[in-house]
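Help: read this over?
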Amino acid sequence: MDRNLALEFVRVTEAAALSAARWMGRGDEKGADQAAVDAMRKAFNIVDIDGTIVIGEGERDEAPMLYIGEEVGTKNGPRVDIALDPLEGTTITANGGYNATSVIAVAEKGRFLHAPDTYMDKLAVGPQAKGMLNIEDPVEVNLKRLAKALDKYMEDIVVCILDRPRHEELIKQVRAAGCRIKLISDGDVSGALACCMEDSPVDILLGIGGAPEGVLSAAALKCLGGDFQGRLKWRNEEEKERAKDMGITDPEKVYTMDELAGGHVMFCATGVTDGEFLKGVHFTPRGAKTHSMVMRSKSRTIRWIHTEHHFDYKPTY
C-alpha cells in the first residue's frame, strides 16, 4: 500500500470523530454511533481505494451502514481490507466520558481475520513481553512471566480489564496474584494501545471484549511492536455456523497477532472525547481541532497529528 494513503485514512477517522463529538453527553448512544457511521462512510467513498469492510458495525442484516462485506472507496486504487469502529466508546460519548475514539485499520486484501461479529478473549502486551505469554496458560503464570520480562515486582504490574460482570473470576485471579488492576468502562482498543505507551501504567490487557476491537488492537500492536493473542468466544451456535461459512474451521483456535492482522498494516485513530493518548474534538467558533495518531507496521512510524478544521472551507460529512 502507498504510504501516502495513511493521510487519506486519517481524514476518514477525523470525519467520524467530528460528527460523533456533537453528541457528547447527550445520552444517545445510537445517535452518536450513527453520526460516526454516516460520516465515515461518506469520507471513505472519496478515497482512491477498492476497499472491503471485513470487520465492521455488524453483519449486513444488522447494520444499515459499514457492515461486514460492504465495499467502499472510488474503486480507483489498491484492493484492501478494512477493520473499523467508527465510534469506539458509544456509551463513553453519550455520557460525556473519557477515551472515546474513531478507529480504522487497513491491510492488503485477505490479511485480516474474517469472522462474525462476536466476542473475543484477549491478551495484549508491549514489545518487552512479546512472545513470552500464552493466553491458554493460567493467569498467574502469565503475570509472573510478564513481571520477569518487564523486570518488575508482581505488585507493580497493572492489568487493564473491562469492567464487566463476566470478568469477576478474572479479577479475583489477578488480585490473588498480587497485581494491580485498572478497570475501564469501554474502549479496549485504547487499553491494548496502553500496553505499548511509555507514559502509561498499563502492562497488560486481559479479558473478553468485542472481536472487531480485537482485530483492531492486533493491527495497532503490530505497528507498535507489541503482541496480541485472541480466541473467539461464541454467544450461540448460530454464530459458530456463520463462522464456518466465513472460513473459520476451528472455532476454538487461538489466533496470533499476524493471523488477525497479517502483512503490511496501517492504523489510524482520532479522539472523540479527551483520553490518555488522544485529545478529543474541541470545537471553535468556526471549526474544530482534532488529535489523531497514524501508524504503519512496515516502518513502525507513529505520527501524532493536530488538525485545525475550518468548516467554511471543508466538506460536510
About this structure: The mean pLDDT is 93.
